[in-house]
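Lab manual, section 2.4: Encoding a predicted structure.

Procedure: take the sequence of the chain (511 residues), apply the prediction step described in section 2.3, and record the output as structure tokens. A sample record is shown.
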Amino acid sequence: MSERLQVAIVNPGDRLQVYQALGGELAAIEPPVWAGLTATYLRQKGFSVEILDANALGLSPEETAQRVKEMNPLLTAVVVYGHQPSASTQTMPSCGAVCRAIKKLDPSLTTILVGGHVAALPERTLTEEACDFVAGGEGPVTVGDLAQALASQRPEDLTKVRGLYYRVNGGAASNPPAPLIQDLDDEMPQMAWDLLPMDRYRAHNWHCFDGLRRQPYASIYTTLGCPYHCSFCCIQAPFKVGEKLQGLKEAVNSYRYFHPRRVVDQLEYLVVKHGVRNVKFADEMFVLNPSHVLAICDGIIARGLDLNIWAYARVDTIRDAAVLEKLKRAGVNWLAFGIEAANERVRDGVKKGFVQGQIFKALDKVRQAGIYVIGNYIFGLPDDDHETMQETLQMAQDLNCEFANFYAAMAYPGSALYRQALAEGWSLPESWSGYSQHAFDTLPLPTKHLSAGEVLAFRDQAFNTYFASPGYLRMVGEKFGAETVRHIQAMAKVRLNRKIVSQPHSLGVAE
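Recorded output:
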């Protein structure tokens, strides 16, 4: 008889609920980066692990539960992460449904919820969801400790599981926090790609505007964490105990590096083993440390890897044209910038500290290097009114980036805006799906001057205005050809319903 599987890691998902009609063909299907890294961390500690990517496989909660029952693991870790940290909350409905389905099918199976959302709200998650445990930090350390404690069959060992939240006498109890993983190269050097359905993943539509096939596709981290404190972002939630960063000074933050050689080794594996060309660097901020970035680029170039990469950058990190030239040579064809708002007063209100002139200069440098730009904009920040939102839309049209994402401001659990919303008594979504930018029940924040419905209606109309602009379509036709123009026109015709907006609007797809 074979030994019992120790840990099953489940990546749940319901693309149709999160994206409505966009979930079918337009939205990306991302490899579950945190599930893959956690699996590697556990393997390095000697545990047997399997990954069930229910999102990629299109499994219902009931089908997922049946697969888990057949695997019969000692512990099932349900991972609550999205395409990026702010998308963690919107996966909670499917995560909760999977936990309920597992308990209904086999109450003896032990489950733990892991991820950014649950780390932000561990006690609430334990109270509301049909899970046995919740991880209060990054996750891998807690899952490993818990698997070890369950294997020992000594109940007292649960008190030794770092970062664990659990039930005691009808209430919630917690253990001291888990430390951050510091030696990334040793403890989780790359994702457990052999446990993932690699044929199921596909790139964003805009990532392949130049006619490339959207599959195969992969996303990886070259760093973890973020050194910034934008008030609308929840990335720091897994690293905090209350308001303090876990084991780190606030100025240092949660930012850590994978060695460039490890990054390039992983890319070469993906190219050789799986034929991957389209790659996302999932770091919150890839273009930040020049020596780290250049070392990765040099490794890619030296090994002759033919890649189509996109990554995140900040306007105030774009300084050296030589770095941009090296990025382009390494295959970084797209950079995404969080421009957020045109009005400096609005940006300052959310700690987005750069001035207007930097935006145009930085993006001009990027385009001169032959790199395409994704501009990310947020409508409905606390100081926004109709005039300032119109300024943001006008700036988006003036910049005329090759692609743009238009978001409505959300108070994501774990962010400063969420804490402010609670303190001020602002209305928040009734369900976690309401935190999705594209769901029927999307409910953004009101501003000091506008209702949530006014913000969402403006955001949806801004998308229509941008992607129907003759100047934008002309630029796309010149750079990518007539077929891409037709694709964008078809994308803009996709209509999704909004609960708080009377008429359906077409929406963006790169959440």
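Check your result against the sample. The chain is about 40% helix and 15% strand.
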